[in-house]
Amino acid sequence: MLYESLKFCKGNPVPVGIRTHVYAISKDDIVKWPELPSTDKVDAKTLDTLAQYTGDFTLSADKKWLRIDLLDKKGKLEWEISGTKPNVLFLNKIILNHPLYNASAAAFQRMAVADDLVYLVPQRDGKYRVLGCEAYETTTKPSGSTGEGIEGEAGSNFEIEAPDVCPAPFYAGKIETEAGNISGATDTSIVTTP
């Protein structure tokens, strides 16, 4: 086992929460997954590499990660253990709050409830976490409301549960989106030179 000290320098801010978007794709559209180092082999050099995928997601031809815009200051990524030793997994969970409750949102929810999706969730610091893995099925539970009165909360919600061997692994690879490629390490555009 590869343990290291977990240090924290007092005075350094820790940005909380997630950014105002996530990306989703059906597992059927993933041709090749990046790799997560194994804890039973010495293929990781430092502690943090055990929680981070190496490589990129390879998608089917003409498929892209789909962006879901979210309400600001809502949604938190959580994880807890599930099962008993030696068969312990992490149950990664999040509730996403999309502001609209139109026909497109309803149709997305209708399909997502029956599909096995993978979600890429950017933390406030720009680093991406993955909900969904090759070995276990992701559950998406849609809900929503039109709100009431003139100040009620409305929108379409996605409650996601994804078992995994790691608490929401980090992903620093390329994210191919409809608007261009972005970095999973920084949530910024990747500029390619011709």
What's the topology here?
Layout: E1 21-26, E2 30-32, E3 52-53, E4 58-59, E5 66-69, E6 78-82, E7 89-98, H1 103-112, E8 117-122, E9 128-131, E10 139-145, E11 155-164, E12 170-171, E13 174-177, E14 180-183
Parallel strand pairs: 3-12
Antiparallel strand pairs: 1-5, 1-8, 2-4, 6-7, 7-11, 8-9, 9-12, 10-11, 13-14
Tally of DSSP helical segments: 1
> Averaging pLDDT over every residue, what do you get?
92
Q: List how many beta strands DSSP finds.
A: 14
Distance between the termini: 44 Å
Features:
1 helix, 6-stranded mixed sheet, mainly beta, about 190 residues, single chain
Descriptive overview:
- The chain is mainly beta and 194 residues long.
- It has one domain (21-183).
- It is 5% helix and 36% strand.
- It has one helix and 14 strands; from the N terminus they run βββββββαβββββββ.
- The strands form four sheets. A six-stranded mixed β-sheet has the order 3-12-9-8-1-5, with no helix packed on it.
- The longest helix has 10 residues, at 103-112.
- The mean pLDDT is 92.
